[in-house]
Amino acid sequence: MLNTARTRLTLGPAALVGLCAMAAALTAGLALERACGEQPAAAPARVPDVDAKTEAEMKPYTEPLAGTDASFGMVPIRGGKFLIGSPSGEAGRSDDEGPQREIVVDAFWMGKHEVTWDEYEQWAYSLELARRKVIEYQPTKLDLLADAVTRPTRPYTDMTFSMGRDGFPAISMTQLAAKKYCEWLSTKTGRYYRLPTEAEWEYACRAGTTTAYWFGNDAAKLEEHEWFIDNSEGYHKVGKKKPNPWGLYDMHGNVAEWCLDGYEADRYSKLAADAPTRNPFVAPTKLYSRAVRGGSWDDDPERCRSAARRGSDREWKRQDPQLPQSQWYFTDAQFLGFRVVRPLREPTAEEKQRFAPDKIQQYKDK
Length: 366
What we know:
The chain is of the alpha+beta class and 366 residues long. It has a single domain (52-362), classed as Alpha-Beta Complex (paralog of FGE (formylglycine-generating enzyme)). The protein is built from eight helices and eleven strands. The chain has a four-stranded antiparallel sheet with strand order 1-2-5-11, with no helix packed on it. The chain has a four-stranded mixed sheet with strand order 9-8-6-10. The longest helix is centred in the N-terminal third of the chain and has 24 residues, at 13-36.
């Protein structure tokens, strides 16, 4: 396993100058946000197959990030019913996976892959802003509005931990950081993106199956489908194993993934037993814990099952030397990333607010 204790760095003069520059850019961005906020919304860029009015019209599409070389693929997930959780006899089952309940999920698109560093660093490290100057790119109105979305402070160490950058999943961010990326992405593209709910994530992972993994119940077959503790010593480039029946890669491994929900161990017992629950979501009410789904390169097969759940832990910040500890980074969660979804039905402003980054997560750990 990785030893991150040796990866700490001290900020030198150059880094401090960079931080000051970022602070100035943020101040200018906030002023721009106020100036642009009263203007009519800009139209999204045209992207083939991106629009649909019905489930039947939904197609896979690729969304480019304007002004960069980065893009990401989205896969249509038709709505339907499924049983969330696992049966009592499933090998490796935990108590928080039951009782099983019937869930109805509305249609959405989901990221074909986990969000990669190629995409994430455009926002988190302001690479997009730096590139504009080099290529003399004229930003669109959406670009300028996106510039006003808050960005993380520069990390004090290499957050890839030498495991790889180009084509590899972004890792070690807090749920706040993942949500803020989605806010930036939505503003920049003009299309609404967010994290998946737990129900959406499990529904998409199962892809119509009812077994422990989408490929069956035999954990011995996990190696040919996913990256987990027995076949990796770190994460791998996305999309190198087999996709599930709905075209999603790395759902059982590579990196675990943030969901929108607050984590409740007894969540399913609170759902109706006599009728399906439609689009369940637990709005977070405290900093710990937040919901995480999917296995990772650092997990045993039991953790990689479709129904496996976990909540975030303050120990994931154990080696963070900042005081107060960073609201953006989980230095010890090198197994954790995320992917995005886009609902077929555009949410109302009120609905979007329910899923937005909450102020609770911005408080220092207590």
